[in-house]
Specification:
CATH topology of the largest domain in chain B: Cytochrome Bc1 Complex, Chain C
Structural class of chain B: mainly alpha
Largest interface: A-B, 22 and 35 residues
CATH superfamily of the largest domain in chain B: Cytochrome Bc1 Complex, Chain C
Low-confidence stretches of chain B: none
Mean pLDDT of chain A: 81
Largest sheet of chain B: 2 strands, antiparallel
Order of helices and strands of chain A: HHEEEEEEEEEEE
Radius of gyration of chain B: 24 Å
Strand content of chain A: 25-35%
CATH architecture of the largest domain in chain B: Up-down Bundle
Radius of gyration of chain A: 23 Å
Distance between the termini of chain A: 66 Å
Number of helices of chain A: 2
Strand order of the largest sheet of chain B: 1-2
Number of domains of chain A: 2
Helix content of chain B: 55-70%
CATH superfamily of the largest domain in chain A: Rieske [2Fe-2S] iron-sulphur domain
Number of domains of chain B: 2
Structural class of chain A: alpha+beta
Distance between the termini of chain B: 51 Å
Order of helices and strands of chain B: HEHHHHHHHHEHHHHHHH
Oligomer: heterodimer
CATH topology of the largest domain in chain A: Rieske Iron-sulfur Protein
CATH architecture of the largest domain in chain A: 3-layer Sandwich
Mean pLDDT of chain B: 88
Shape of chain A: elongated
CATH class of the largest domain in chain A: Mainly Beta
Strand content of chain B: under 5%
Largest sheet of chain A: 4 strands, antiparallel
Low-confidence stretches of chain A: none
Helix content of chain A: 10-25%
Number of strands of chain B: 2
Chain lengths: 153, 428
Amino acid sequence: MNLNRRKFIKRLIAAVVSIEAFFLIKNGISTKTPLTEEEKLISVGNAELFMNNKTYPFVTNHFYLRRFKDGGFMAFSVKCTHLGCVVNINSNTGGFNCPCHASQFNEFGDVISSPATRPLDTYPIIVKNNELWVDITKATTRTTFDKSQLTYI
Amino acid sequence: MTHKGPQNRVRSSIENFILHLHPMRIDKRAIKFTRTFGLGGISALLFVILFISGIILRFSYIPTVEHAYESIVELQNHSIFGQFIRNIHHLSGMLLVVVSFLHLIRVYYTQSIFQRRAKNWIYGLILLFLVLFSSFTGYLLPWDQLSFWAVTVITRVIEYFPFIGVHIAQYIRSGDVINGNTLLNFYNLHTGVIPLVFVVLMSIHFWLVRNAGGVALPKNEHKKRVNVLPNLVVKEMMVASIVIAIIFIVSVFYNAPLLDEANPLKSPNPTKAPWYFLGAQELLLHVHPIFSAVIIPIGIGVFFIYLPYFNYKDLNIGVWFNSEKGKSLVIQSALLSVAFTFILIYLFEHFLHFEIWLSTYPSWISTGVFPFLLYVLPVSAYLTLIYKKGKSSNTEVIMSLTTILVSSYITMLMISLLLRGKGMLLVF
């Protein structure tokens, strides 16, 4: 490669400008306000308050909390994994139905009727002296349900 | 009848300006209405209408979650002609999508995208993409249930793209869900960045048309040239007046939709993407996202970009459908494709349940590879048949393939738009 002084300086300037532009655009457009400690962990109350085999909606915080027959807890994201609509609780089966494109999920969040292709995302649950907290910072994607995803007191 | 035009007087500044856009004299066949249907010109006119009505709307719109919806209700109910201006903007936006698409179809089927015009085809594709992008960013601004969930659905489609999809979608939305930052970003793109890019690209697009010698015409020994002033300009004025009149009249009677204010906690049933993306959404209902959101869109995109550069035989530039045979093949392919797509979707809906029959396979095989092959194999068989048995040239075969793809998309769009009711089930 034939690189003389002028070419080198031109390319250096181009590189510096592109890097600067990248950061300007990145931080300028995507101004995500970071969540405070209090917002990250949602307190849902004492574990004893929740009945077995029942789903509790916390839709404003974007999750459903379900307690299973054996007392285990799971927090499901309300977003349908197909196209991001808010799923509703199916009170007959304990599962979830999507109103937009008719996807259906069972009580463990697994798909029982397409077009959704993967189970509902979950949020980690943290137990502190019998109090339940749900960490809504990152949803966990999974391929299928297994026992290890349940949280016990 | 052709006019001689002003020859013995000094031209006005408007006439001089027009002669920067158009040449002095032009082939008579180029100004026949049915050669171009004025589609490119109408697109440019619609852009101007959108620009002006958009600027007026900008005075009363507030791009925040708290006030966006309110400001539009306020505009409609309490500003003089507020609703009318919004209707004009809405209608012109929809028309621009339709007209620029028809412009692409016209240019393609009159074989006007090859050689010197190949570069302009690429610019045209970028402009069409920009039209869709500006329409899509504008879709969110009213902040009602329609716009909120349509944009939710589309940004979710982007997430299906492997590895980088989730990051791109999060970047566009500035978060996991549509929020105030998304609205601000879309507002800036829609009213600032995109129009600016439009002006630049449109100038290049126009200049490249001139550069290639204007509208593509079949070869002819005896060219008859006429003055652009007034022969072409009069026709342009006439078409522009008719288009403006239609937009104004329809805007009086047809109101742009505005549903309830956006509620991020309640999805309407059914939730549909903006109408021009409905074909893609329909595809996503039937085929695994790895195919419907990644392989098929990229494949079709590359195919369209590469269209002018295939090694064609017997090109007849400027001739509709390349030849009489090409014309009958295009009509045949379009009809077959519409029927085939419709039947296939009906079968997928009611009879073909690959995800149940092949539940032991991973879902990308059972709901991906199999439905994909079910479409690709018959289409390939048909194309081979017309190539081998019908003795068609590769030009005609590629034209048939393009026709099949475009017709399939339009069929899916129509099915999704007209035949999908609650829970996205097929209703007749």
